[in-house]
Design brief:
It is a single chain. With 698 residues, this protein is an alpha+beta fold. The chain is 54% helix and 7% strand. The chain has helices at residues 13-16, 28-33, 61-82, 87-113, 117-138, 141-152, 154-159, 162-176, 184-208, 246-256, 261-280, 286-290, 299-331, 343-355, 359-362, 368-383, 472-490, 505-508, 510-519, 522-525, 540-549, 554-571, 580-591, 608-611, 618-634, 641-652, 660-668, 674-683, 689-697, and strands at residues 212-215, 228-229, 233-236, 385-390, 403-409, 413-423, 433-438, 441-442, 448-449, 452-459. InterPro entries: M3A_MIP, MetalloPept_cat_dom_sf, Neurolysin/TOP_dom2, Pept_M3A_M3B, Pept_M3A_M3B_dom. It holds the Pfam family Peptidase_M3.
Length: 698
């Protein structure tokens, strides 16, 4: 494949010269991101196809790639069914999974990110067709039987290595949640429920992002300019949480969250179907099914975690809300009651007042090229890994501003590729995320199939006078997503079914959240944060203020996440025989400090219920683990190579090949309790008194 061509360690300096600056010449990786991409005009250069897949030089190629994968699948199913039980069974299943995933994962990305509608449509069709095959395989009794023969043979299972045994068990879990062990009638019922859920999930996801509208004459004329409007209606598509006008925030909240009967019915039906499916395949609830194999393991553990955290945060949260109310009283004494639409705005006001965190003061020090150099330097120090800019071949990328990085280890050589789709463009989804395009795995030839991922951000384009400049929030997002990418790159699992981020949800966010700690540590930031014009380093007190500002109203912010996580758990627990709104009212009172607003339905905007059903707590638990890893292993020296190697060896290398708690125990060299998780989150909110002393002295 063209993705394995020679590495280009230098991106021509003429590309970087289009940006006016006075600092020393950028390194190759810095130059690649601090200038407009220079396209090579070679009329004779062959179009290698998206990601080096020759057939994908046109949208019609998706049908070709899909059909080939489906033919290979049929052959591999036959091979798996006739093979004697042993390691070959697991290898064949993984090859089967890889054959489908290489097409499905690529199509999943293209259908949302490609600027050409023809490519998006072709990719969507491929996703549907591959998904149909996956459903067919998950209910193939003979195929499941070949795996069951292996799992039932204790002598053979004991002869397998732990990773192979775990992969076999994970494949069987996939069969079981599809109802393979049921009789034919119930199996058909499980299939029908799965098909129905696909439609319900899609309908809810689409509906959760749709704007609400109200007649123009229903709103005061002096605030209408804040919203999109046509000749008859005002359309509200978000909370307008950052606006200083109290009335605008209130109106946006009440209109955007006004209940939609059809969407409400969709959500109710979705939750019922999930519960029915879970019960059908042998679980007490959908939450019990979703949490199998996670760090938490059970809904009871999750709710215990959330309740303990609430108890520990109670006084601090109350203090945070009191500070917000005082600020609102100061700014608007005639309307001083603190309401849900006030939380994001006034917490931001308090941070700005206390620490003077103005993004425009930081951005000149965070040019994209400098930040990429910082990541490169950090990975070299911790893992002996370098990011090397490689020029894509014709047709390899979907947009000219996509950068391609080869990830190279100092002794192991090429580890994989990261495609960086960082810049805003029309119709591009406004989201920061990591896509696996191809998972790593050992091939029968003895070679290793290199992982390929895409990182998508929404950064401004460089201008003629300046490179792309990042706000502190953008910098943190860049480090976060690169944490996911390095999880994919540094894993060396034998099987792609457990490669990189293909692990339990409450562990998958640990490497990305850990990177946020590096992004705000002065010893790391000082390696790269230079003013793009003068070369002046970012002052230490500015970094310290940035870190401390995040703790302002941090308890209230965390408590809001606890409320969301608790709502998600209860929705996916035992049926409540009451409306989702009634459940929300009760939990908002129990887990959050601000009142429920009548005639609103926040749950209809909770799109995470689809991708993170019963797992929204994962953000909090992953943050707790990341905090413990940072404070125990890296806070003394964030550039320590020995600790970086241990981190790779214990946590990054295994993907989903080990129990997540075992990986955490290996890194921390102890078995943390739920109380330890809670204490880690709470301690992160403690102020650094050294920062206050420095600020008072300055």
């Amino acid at each position: 494949m063209s993705s394995c061509k020679r590495l280009l360690s230098v991106l021509r300096h003429r590309g970087a010269s289009s940006v006016i600056r006075k600092v020393a010449t950028w390194s190759p990786v810095g130059a690649a991101f601090n200038a407009k991409q220079q396209r090579r005009l070679d009329l004779f250069e062959k179009n290698v196809g998206l990601f080096g897949v020759p057939e994908l030089s046109s949208p019609d190629g998706f049908a070709v790639v899909q059909d080939r994968a489906l033919r290979e699948t049929e052959q591999l199913v036959e091979q798996a069914c006739r093979s004697p039980p042993g390691a070959i069974t697991v290898k064949t299943f993984d090859q089967l999974s890889d054959t489908l995933c290489k097409v499905a994962d690529l199509a999943d990305f293209v259908k949302v990110a490609h600027p050409d509608p023809a490519y998006r449509e072709a990719a969507e069709k491929t996703c549907i067709n591959i998904g149909t095959m996956v459903e067919k395989l998950n209910t193939n009794v003979e195929l499941c039987g070949s795996l069951k023969n292996l799992l039932d043979n204790k002598d053979v299972m004991n002869s397998l290595d732990p990773e192979t045994r775990r992969v076999a068990e994970l494949f069987m879990f996939d069969f079981e949640i599809s109802g393979i062990h049921l009789n034919e009638k119930k199996r058909k019922e499980a299939v029908n429920l799965n098909v129905k859920l696909l439609d319900l999930n899609n309908d809810f996801l689409v509906g959760s992002h749709m704007p609400n509208k109200i007649e123009r004459n229903a709103l005061p004329s002096h605030i209408q300019h804040h919203f999109f409007k046509d000749s008859q209606y005002i359309h509200v598509s978000g909370f307008h949480a950052d606006t200083s006008d109290d009335l605008v925030r209130e109106v946006a909240y009440k209109i955007f969250l006004y209940p939609n009967t059809q969407l409400m019915n969709t959500l109710e039906e979705l939750l019922v179907c999930r519960h029915e499916l879970a019960k059908l395949v042998g679980y007490d609830s959908y939450a019990h099914r979703a949490l199998k194999g996670t760090m938490a393991k059970s809904p009871e553990t999750v709710m215990n975690f959330l309740q303990l955290l609430t108890d520990k945060l109670s006084d601090r949260s109350a203090q945070d809300f009191s500070m917000m109310k005082d600020m609102k009283t100061k700014l608007n004494p005639r309307n001083a009651d603190l309401m849900p639409w006030d939380h994001p705005y006034f917490s931001g006001v308090l941070r700005a007042e206390r620490f003077n965190i103005e993004p425009s003061l930081y951005s000149p020090f965070f040019s994209l090229g400098a930040c990429m150099e910082g990541l490169n330097s950090l990975f070299t120090e911790l893992f002996g890994v370098s990011l090397m800019a490689e020029h894509p071949s014709a047709g390899e990328v979907w947009n000219d501003d996509v950068r391609k990085l080869a990830v190279v280890h100092e002794t192991e050589g090429l580890l994989g590729y990261i495609y960086c789709d960082f810049f805003q463009r029309p119709e591009k989804p406004h989201q920061d995320c990591h896509f696996t395009i191809r998972g790593g795995r050992e091939l029968s030839s003895g070679q290793y199939q290199l992982p390929v991922v895409v990182l998508m951000l929404s950064l401004p384009q460089p201008s003629k006078s300046a490179p792309t400049l990042l706000t502190p929030g953008m910098l943190e997002n860049l480090f976060h997503e690169m944490g996911h990418a390095m999880h994919s790159m540094l894993g060396r699992t034998r099987y792609q079914h457990i490669t990189g981020t293909r692990c339990s949800t409450d562990f998958a966010e640990v490497p990305s959240i850990l990177m946020e700690y590096f992004a705000t540590d002065y010893r790391v930031v000082n390696q790269f944060a230079r003013h793009y014009q003068t070369g002046q380093p970012l002052p230490k007190n500015m970094v310290n203020r940035l870190c401390e500002s995040k703790k302002v109203c941090g308890a209230a912010d965390t408590q809001l996440q606890v409320f969301y996580a608790a709502l998600d758990q209860v929705y996916h627990g035992a049926p409540q025989n009451r409306s989702t709104t009634d459940i929300l009212k009760e939990l908002q009172q129990k887990f959050y400090g601000l009142p429920y607003i009548p005639n609103t339905a926040w749950q209809l905007r909770f799109s995470h219920l689809i991708g993170y059903g019963a797992k929204y707590y994962s953000y909090l638990m992953s943050r707790a683990v990341a905090s413990m890893v940072w404070n125990q292993c890296f806070i003394g020296d964030p550039l320590n190579r020995e600790m970086g190697e241990r981190y790779r060896r214990e946590m990054l290398a295994h993907g989903g090949g080990k129990e997540p708690r075992h990986m955490v125990e290996g890194m921390l060299q102890k078995s943390p309790s739920i109380e330890d998780f809670v204490d880690a989150l709470v301690s992160d909110l403690n102020p650094d008194f050294e920062t206050f002393i420095m600020d008072s002295e300055s």
